[in-house]
Amino acid sequence: MKIEIKKVPEYQVAFIMQKGSFEKIPEALGKVVGWLMTKQVEIQMPIYGIYYNSPMEVSEEELTWEVGAAFLGELEGADDIQIKKVPEHEVVSTVFKGPYIEAHSIYGDLFEHAMKNGYHIAGPPLESYLNDPNLVPESELLTEVQFPVLKQ
To answer: Where are the alpha helices (DSSP H) in 52-139?
Structure first.
């Protein structure tokens, strides 16, 4: 597994914040991507999820997460879809191959790599979904996992 520290350029996203079960992720992602498609903007990068807490820390009802997609163009949010600019930042990153539910298994490796290289974790994990679960078997799913980092 290749782990790296890399710079992510500024980008903007359309996203939905949610509280509750991760089972709602596909529906929320579909809503954001469908909305972006009706706006005829270019989706800039893979769809993503950010996870602010975990099932090991809180009950399912208290899980807090966001899902969305970056895009090029100018839009204003609507209903529960929000827009934000994400400033340039550094991340520790790797690609996990396998079921989405198992991607968290490499979080410890990312923490360790960051610390060994003089960084500390500066925020929640972002998972970018690089291929389509409707087109590849679960064992072939690719998820880029990133944690924002700051130099110590």
So the answer is: 107-116
Residue-wise pLDDT for 42-88, tens only, equals 998 799 999 999 998 999 999 999 999 999 999 999 999 999 999 99
Domain tally, the chain = 1
Q: DSSP per residue over 12-74, as a string?
A: EEEEEEEES-GGGHHHHHHHHHHHHHHTT-EE-S--EEEESS-TTTS-GGG-EEEEEEEEES-
Q: What is the helix (H) or strand (E) element at residue 82, kind and residue range?
A: strand 82-86
26 class by beta-carbon count within 10 Å (0-12 exposed, 13-18 middle, 19+ buried): exposed
The residue behind tokens 């298994």 is 105
If you ran DSSP here, which 8-state letter would residue 117 be given? T
CATH of the domain at 28: 3.20.80.10
Residue 41 domain boundaries: 4-151
CA dist 143 and 54 (Å) reads 17
Q: Which residues contact 98 (CB under 8 A, 6 or more apart)?
A: 138, 139, 141
Q: Is the pTM of this model over 0.70?
A: yes
